Amino acid sequence: MPTPAHSNYSETIGDCQDLIGVIAEYGTSGAYGATSRFHREADTTRIRKITNQLLLAVAYGMESKEANIPVKPSDVGNLFKSHLYAKELLQKSPKFLLERGDVTDWAGRTFKNITAFEYALWAKDFKMIEMMLHCIPETEAGDAIRAALLEQYKQVTTPVDAGGGLTYTHVYDKPNLDALGIPDGTTTSITDTRTENHFDITPLCAAYQDYDTNFNTRTLLQRDAYWAKLIGKQQRLLPIHILQRYCDSNTPFYPLPQFNREFKRSTNFYGCVTKSSVSSIFGSKLSSDFALGRGWGRGVGMGRALGVWRSDLAAIRQLDEVSTNEIEKITSLLSQPRHVAGPRL
């Protein structure tokens, strides 16, 4: 699959302390204005770069120092700055939830002119959204932000045929199938433009179900190819927060979890073949050499022992149902003013 192209953020954003300083100034100044055209243009450029970093942090599941297991810079290359988290940016100024930019997520989907909140809504990352809302102060300015987010919510969730949803362009390699529906080892490069309200888990669930239904009629080689290249490919297309659920060693997929508590956002997994921990799914051979199996083990791996895909299918469906229910609650949270004005003199 083509690797999404991102700039080297050490060069384009600059030093971390400088970045946080810009956010602090943006958050405390009314218009963040400057007296000269040069400085106004420089300010606009820096704000845009911070917005892009926030979008990347959300798209790559970098919620906070508390929620995430640290990602090694060597694992992510130039994809994003692994030491900057969405919460760190938003605590300085939640107004960045209203800033728009472009972002390419790890699956190769490019969204144009969106906010970090809109991406999290599309991905159904309700824990990320929960953090975002906690960063908004209970002030008049905070109520204005919540009102603007409610309009974003309405846009994303309005039926597509009525003009709602988010549009993205997706560049990826699609496995070619033989006459029996088994990946033949070749791929076709696809560029697809779609408009959706939310990410759809149906293709992954269908692949799990097909694997289970036809397990006894396929050879070992056919099962291996289907598991790694078709189920693995569907996993490779998941929003990163779902893969972080696979990698959360504290919450196995069996017995069926309720996904109603905090989880550790990790991209590390245990390799059942190598019998060792693999540092990160970033840069791994997911979808070419293996697929992830969670089940009831101590950590996510590459095995398919004892029908692990059945528990994984049930867990993914459960997670999607919980996420849908949590997303539907957001409108009431955004509709309630939090600021109580004092008596007028």
Architecture overview:
The chain has 345 residues and is an alpha+beta fold. The protein has a domain at 201-326. It is built from 13 helices and 6 strands. A 4-stranded antiparallel β-sheet has the order 1-2-3-4. It has a two-stranded antiparallel ribbon with strand order 5-6. The radius of gyration is 21 Å and the shape is globular. The termini are far apart.
The averaged pLDDT comes out at 86
Shape descriptor: globular
Structural class category: alpha+beta
Q: Please describe the biggest sheet, giving its number of strands, its sense, and whether it closes into a barrel.
A: 4 strands, antiparallel
User: What's the arrangement of strands in the largest beta sheet?
Assistant: 1-2-3-4
Helix content: 40-55%
Number of strands: 6
The low-confidence parts are 1-18
End-to-end separation? 64 Å
Strand content: 5-15%
How many helices does DSSP assign? Answer: 13
Protein name: SidC homolog
Keywords: Plasmid
